[in-house]
């Protein structure tokens, strides 16, 4: 997620390359998909947003994204290599259900790369939420009031080990107030949707009072393990150069599920569990 800082790469070069990605996705969506033929449906069978998943809506977001990145020096925080990891998966399985932790200047990009799919953003900061949606009202997003702080990361691991409702055998999110790592404050649309891709690039995790990504990582693992449909859940975690992200990824997303590492991004493919009594990793 990008707020105020720029990517270290040349912004015009990266911007033009991002536009190129959109152009390819747009052409694929235009020529390979018709109202009666959807050869690139994701394995999970996500049919996109009700009402907002139409061809017109998808085309509008793609065109807004092309205009934005072609005329702005503000580019996604992730490098081109990191963006390409997620792009390759989206190209293969979109339209699908894509959950993104964090709103930023890259949000139009993620929505545009999932034409006809459902892309939902979860943002911690109500003011930033309003600022982004003011410029990109077509995005689907909601705010989240996290109940953790980065300074509690070590304590929360101990809490996980001692709280029965955090254990893999009992892991659930909706209404789980006992497990502090469970995101129990999300809307029903989050809980009722089976997410094919989950991008964790938020909340903030670089100062002690920030929410940190502990609960986002744990909850993504719970969603993936509890998947009812066939196929895996693709989880992308950014900023794995930081201690908390790396530690929680190895604890809940599992090294055995890591299929690709690019820069500061890890890509996991997490299968649904057949035996809920098994550990996360």
TrEMBL record:
Gene Ontology MF annotations: methyltransferase activity
Q: Name one Pfam family in it.
A: IRX15_IRX15L_GXM
Q: Which InterPro entries has this protein been placed in?
A: IRX15/GXM/AGM, SAM-dependent_MTases_sf
Gene Ontology biological-process entries: methylation; xylan biosynthetic process
Location(s) in or outside the cell: Golgi apparatus membrane
Alphabetized, the UniProt keywords read: Membrane, Methyltransferase, Transferase, Transmembrane, Transmembrane helix
Q: How does it sit in the membrane?
A: Single-pass membrane protein
The UniProt transmembrane annotation reads 12-32
CC annotations in GO: Golgi membrane
Q: Could you identify this protein by its name?
A: Methyltransferase
